[in-house]
């Protein structure tokens, strides 16, 4: 399940994807998360795509994260983790 979330983050980078993978990062290392995503990739899984979509957290409006119930402090923590 986590691998599909990481793959989704690498593929599309939607706010929900960032939130899900951020939550998973509390349990698994970044190396583990990348490997999970690679295992569930359809075709190629590029680390650069994942990094680009993580960086996108900086450009995502607070409202997009707040719509999923994230508090301002959690949004800040998510962005810090993603960058």
Structural commentary:
- With 83 residues, this protein is mainly alpha-helical.
- It has one domain (2-82).
- Helix content is 66%, strand content 0%.
- The chain is built from 6 helices and no strands.
- It has helices spanning 2-11, 15-24, 30-39, 47-55, 62-66, 72-82.
- The radius of gyration is 12 Å and the shape is globular.
- The mean pLDDT is 90.
Short description:
The chain is mainly α and 83 residues long. 66% of the residues lie in helices and 0% in strands.
Biggest pleated sheet: none
* SSE class: mainly alpha
Count of helical stretches? 6
Assembly type: single chain
Shape: globular
Number of domains: 1
Q: Which regions contain 5 or more consecutive residues with pLDDT less than 50?
A: none
- Rg, Å, rounded: 12 Å
Helix content: 55-70%
Q: Report the strand count.
A: 0
User: Could you tell me the mean pLDDT?
Assistant: 90
Order of helices and strands: HHHHHH
Distance between the termini: 24 Å
Strand composition percent = under 5%
């Amino acid at each position: 399940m986590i691998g599909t979330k990481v793959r989704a983050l690498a593929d599309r980078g939607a706010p929900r994807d960032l939130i899900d993978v951020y939550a998973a990062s509390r349990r698994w290392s970044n190396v583990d998360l990348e490997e999970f995503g690679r295992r569930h990739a359809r075709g190629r899984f590029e680390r650069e795509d994942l990094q680009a979509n993580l960086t996108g957290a900086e450009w995502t409006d607070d409202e997009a994260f707040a719509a999923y119930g994230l508090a301002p402090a959690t949004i800040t923590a998510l962005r810090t983790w993603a960058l």
